[in-house]
Amino acid sequence: MRTLAVLAAVAIVFSNIEEPLTISAAVSLAESLEAIGKVSLAGGGLPVRFNFAGSNVLARQLVNGAPADVFISADEAQMDVAAAAGAIDIGSRVDLLGNRLAVIARPDSRPIRAIRELLRADIRRVALGDPSAVPAGVYARQYLQALGVWDAIEGKVVPVGNVRAAVAAVENGSADAAIVYETDAALSGTAITALVVSGPGAPRIVYPAAIVAGSRQRDRARRFLSFLRGAEASAIFRKFKFIPLAPAL
């Protein structure tokens, strides 16, 4: 009887342990969200676990029924894919963050002062997230098309699976330059940030967030999404060069 009582007590303890929220988020958010997750937990907040990948991969996972509680995409198009399939709670959707494109290069390369200099003969390979699917690559392609140089640069493009792979391509020498997010450029240990795309012609980069329709922890997911919009999380996002967009709650 005493053994049964101990087992019952253990079962009660484990039944009261909160299951972590699963956050499916664009890989460019990895460092900032991990830092925010630690702050939230230290402050008595919700335990979370992260599933980082390219936004197109995450959207496909959700459409196919993969379990998650919150989805944060690096662009509106992939959130729209999830919404069209009924994979997110549309009413919870919010524009969470902004970002900017940046050109990175090897430290031994000639300076790149303008995006058109990617046409130079000494720049033979330019890494991009797959410009047909990966948000950073899509933004870059659209920007280059608007400038009228995409057709000339396309032959140099090395398409990769996500924005972190584009950074790695410059770091390991398999590309001479890459167009990535400013936030990823800032994290590189060896590549240099040649320029940041800004001004009237710069693309508007938005990271929307929403609660996943199949979440079994909707109230807790809503609380975490609210935390991401608060002052404490916004300060961390800014540290990693993101631009908070959603009004603090």
Account of the 3D structure:
The protein has ten helices and eleven strands. By secondary structure, the protein is of the alpha/beta class. Strand 1 (21-26), helix 2 (30-42) and strand 2 (48-53) form a beta-alpha-beta unit. The longest helix is centred in the first third of the chain and has 14 residues, at 2-15. It has a six-stranded mixed β-sheet. A five-stranded mixed β-sheet has the order 7-6-8-5-9, sandwiched between helices.
Care to give the gist of this entry?
The chain has ten helices and eleven strands.
Question: Keywords for this structure?
Answer:
249 residues; five-stranded mixed β-sheet; 2 domains; D-Maltodextrin-Binding Protein, domain 2; 10 helices; alpha/beta; globular
Give the full name of the CATH homologous superfamily of the largest domain: Periplasmic binding protein-like II
- Compute the number of strand runs: 11
Largest sheet: 6 strands, mixed
Oligomer: single chain
Number of helices, counting only DSSP H or I runs of 4 residues or more: 10
Look at the structure and give the mean pLDDT. 91
- Measured between the Cα atoms of the first and last residue, the distance is 51 Å
What's the order of the H and E elements?
A: HEHEHEHEEEHHEHEHEEHHE
Give the class-level CATH name of the largest domain: Alpha Beta
Q: Please mark out the parts with pLDDT under 50 across 5 or more consecutive residues, or reply none.
A: 1-16
**CATH level 3 topology of the largest domain:** D-Maltodextrin-Binding Protein, domain 2
Tell me what portion of residues adopts beta-strand conformation. 15-25%
Identify the strand order in the major beta sheet.
Answer: 2-1-3-10-4-11
The CATH architecture of the largest domain is: 3-Layer(aba) Sandwich
**Shape summary:** globular
Structural class: alpha/beta
Provide the domain count: 2
Radius of gyration from the alpha-carbon trace, in angstroms: 21 Å
- Helix content, binned percent: 25-40%
